[in-house]
Write the structure tokens for this entry.
Amino acid sequence: MLKTGFPACSTTYQFSCGVGILPALKGLLIMVQYLSENRL
């Protein structure tokens, strides 16, 4: 396993990497929407 800032997106780790990134982006989008709603 490579010890880098990003997961190794190759061969066996490609699926887990894609699955790990999508929920993180979705969570970030929800947080941004929540903050923007509280500002209005």
Observations:
- Confidence is low (pLDDT under 50) at residues 1-5.
- The radius of gyration is 15 Å.
- The longest helix spans residues 13-39.
- The CA atoms of residues 11 and 27 lie 26 Å apart.
